[in-house]
Amino acid sequence: MDNLKALQESIEKNIILNPKYHDPLVLVKAIRNGLVYGSKVRFPHALVMIFLFRSGTVQEKIKLIYKATRQHATNLAKFALLYKSSMLALKGVNGGKEQSVHSFMAGLFGSYWVFGHGKAGTSSVNQQICIYVFARVVLAFAKLAVQPPGDNSLVGSRYGGHGGKGLLGLNEEQLQRVRQNSWPVFASLSWACVMWLFRWYPETL
Predict the structure, then answer these.
(1) Which of 6, 54, 197, 204 could anchor a disulfide with 50, C-beta 3.0 to 4.6 Å?
(2) Taking the CB of residue 158, how many other CB atoms lie within 10 A of it?
(3) Which domain of life is it from (predicted)?
(4) Residue 74: inside a domain
């Protein structure tokens, strides 16, 4: 036990906390996080959907669950690797300083090669991932447009947000109405639209 503890302390001191290995460890951590998060998100979803709505033997369903989980996890790991690598490269050519545009460029590069390029880019798993991301982006931009600068009550106040952009120029009374009614309106319209589409244009869904 003492030898194991000594080995752990040696690895932590000589590798994990060594600035020389910072960048490689960042990439390793990115890959690990992508694999873990992708598996946690996709496995329960695939398990329920495939066993409830897919025909076939139990063995065939297990293979489908494994395939969907593996694709989701590996795609997120690939994206995380490309994104972090691009961020490190952009930071390196900019004198070690990160700029706001770097995350946009790195995300653009990584997402094209993982989610937008070739036949694999249009797989059902990738489409679901991108649709989810798109929805989060639209909601985030809506919050930024409504919330005034310096006020982060709508924009990630729990996470130390920086406030919004205040593009709509709403006063406090109008902001309060938005806070109270935005989600009910969004949820109701979303379901109203999807059910109309499902009734009259189901092929689009």
Answers:
(1) 54
(2) 6
(3) Eukaryota
(4) yes
Contact 69, 39 (CB under 8 A): yes
Range of the structural domain that residue 98 is part of: 1-122
pTM: 0.80
37 in a structural domain: yes
Q: What pLDDT score was predicted for residue 29?
A: 94
Q: Where does the pLDDT of residue 149 fall: very low under 50, low under 70, confident under 90, or very high at 90 and above?
A: confident
pLDDT on residue 164: 76
Q: What is the 3-state secondary structure (H, E, C) of the chain?
A: CHHHHHHHHHHHHHHHCCHHHHHHHHHHHHHHHHHHHHHHHHHHHHHHHHHHHCCCCHHHHHHHHHHHHHHHHHHHHHHHHHHHHHHHHHHHHCCCCCCHHHHHHHHHHHHHHHHHCCHHHHCHHHHHHHHHHHHHHHHHHHHHHHCCECCCCCCCHHHCCCECCCCCCCCHHHHHHHHHHHHHHHHHHHHHHHHHHHHHCHHHC
Residue type, 19: P
